[in-house]
Structure of HK97 family phage prohead protease:
Amino acid sequence: MVVAATLERRAFSEVRAAGRRLEGYAATFTGMADLGRFRERIAPGAFRAALSGDVLALLDHDAGKVLGRTRSGTLRLSEDAHGLSFSLDLPDTQAGRDVLLLAERGDLGGMSFGFTVPEGGDSWDGTTRTLRSIALKEISVVCAWPAYEGTEIALRSMEWGTKRQRRARALKLAEARRWA
């Protein structure tokens, strides 16, 4: 019997923009998400198998608002010691322009990703789930709050700001998450 995998989504908030390109982390290995009934973490290497597939970049998980994809080369993904990094060339579409403007203003909520877990791809220790293998379907730029803490959303360009200004933005985001 084959059981259909349920698409799951998790959010992060580390994004930088340079010109029409967003860069950052769609997921990190350092955070623990409190998902209500259970807590969840991502193990290093969890995305390794997914990197060879065709992954979409969307706005708010909306398949009608495609921002890029790995198959066309407009989305590039890699896994490093920190997490799943991405580089996304934004299209000159309404959705792409909206994302760029929101990034410039510092209004983006973060990044999210949609995935399924292949059989044997997770393990449980009480109410804590560890994702060890993820079948990545999409990453999304989101306007809401992230499920995982420990990441930052910022606009990156030559004029974007000093290290002190970026740190101040990160502190404001951390404060906003406490109120969310």
Notes: The CA atoms of residues 14 and 151 lie 5 Å apart. The first strand starts at residue 8 and ends at 12.
